[in-house]
Specification:
Helix content is 32%, strand content 25%. It has 10 helices and 15 strands. Strand 10 and strand 11 form a beta hairpin.
């Protein structure tokens, strides 16, 4: 069994001030609050202002982490920003965050696994720290989905919002956080959730070349509720624990009905599940760190508890991690 030497030592988050409520959306597209809540569980979402980008949200999430846990980041030797809405194609968001934080000697990379980004980023950070290649890694999940949203597409615009979360991963062989992982991708389904860039074809098929986020919600829903419960079991298979030993399940906050279905099919109680979608909507790579930080703020997460994180989305990619909560 893989022996981790990496520990999560701090967490922080940030969401923009502007709220976009379901009532606001009623004035923009043909929808209503009751319909949105019934089908998604979402009541509102946060929207970045015109000059606020993913690097700004990432930076503020790290500043929140530093202030709350009295942490210095000047000796961070790797920054991983998990996002698919970067400020630019290049430079990376991670490089912009490095400059904003004034860190002098660090690597900086962006990682794009869409809604599974944060769990992929944690997996990479665990490998870097456990191998000894790095000692102190910032993992940030942040997206500004409002900037690629078609607010005339009522099936999609009701779901998404902006936000970010960050954790610090440090070397600690005595009290590691990471227990087990499972990574999975099904690129054949990439056409069901995309935003075009240099290419407007995927697997030989023409795409809607709007530059906005395009989603076939029905197909993504079917894929997630079928494959995620199997993936949860795979995460547990390589451990001495069973699913009923898990204290908290923190899935990607795509849609509350989807989460309920995943819990029902896996046999995990929804009452022990954390999600951030009610107030923030689907924030892609930020949903899991936002849910974790809400759990901290509300006093739900306790030292030594076992938490199953599971990201899934565009790609179609998934990443599940079983961790010890060591804060």
């Amino acid at each position: 069994m893989f022996k981790s030497k990496a520990r999560i030592t701090a967490i922080g988050s940030y969401v923009p001030e502007k709220r976009l409520t379901n009532k606001d959306l009623e004035r923009m597209v043909e929808t209503n609050d009751e319909w949105i809540v019934k089908r998604t569980g979402i009541k509102e979402r946060r929207i970045a202002h015109e000059e606020e980008f993913t690097s700004d949200i990432s930076y503020k999430a790290v500043k929140d982490l530093m202030e709350r846990y009295d942490k210095s980041v000047e000796d961070v030797d790797m920054i991983i920003v998990c996002t698919f809405t970067p400020d630019f194609n290049t430079p990376s968001v991670a490089s912009l965050v490095q400059a904003k934080l004034g860190i002098k000697n660090t690597g900086a990379i962006d990682l794009n696994a869409a809604c599974a980004g944060f769990t992929y980023g944690l997996h990479v950070a665990n490998g870097l720290v456990t191998s000894g290649l790095n000692k102190k890694v910032l993992v940030i999940g942040a997206d500004t989905l409002s900037k690629i949203m078609d607010y005339e597409d009522r099936a999609t615009c009701i779901l998404f919002g902006d936000g970010g979360g960050a954790v610090l991963v440090e070397y600690d062989e005595k009290q590691p956080s990471f227990i087990s992982s499972h990574l999975y991708s099904e690129g054949e389904g990439g056409k069901y959730l995309y935003s075009t860039n240099l290419s407007t074809r995927i697997n030989g098929e023409d795409l809607n070349n709007s530059g906005n986020l395009v989603q076939n919600g029905r197909e993504v829903y079917k894929w997630a509720v079928t494959t995620v419960p199997k993936g949860m079991q795979t995460v547990m298979k390589n451990t001495d624990f069973h699913l009923n030993d898990v204290d908290w399940f923190v899935p990607h906050s795509a849609n509350l009905r989807m989460i309920e279905s995943i819990c029902d099919r896996s046999g995990f109680p929804i009452e022990r599940t954390l999600y951030s979608l009610v107030e923030y909507g689907n924030t892609s790579s930020a949903t899991i760190p936002l849910a974790l930080d809400q759990g901290v703020s509300e006093g739900n997460l306790n030292h030594g508890e076992k938490i199953l994180l599971y990201g899934f989305g565009g790609g179609l990619a998934q990443a599940g991690l079983l961790i010890n909560w060591t804060l």
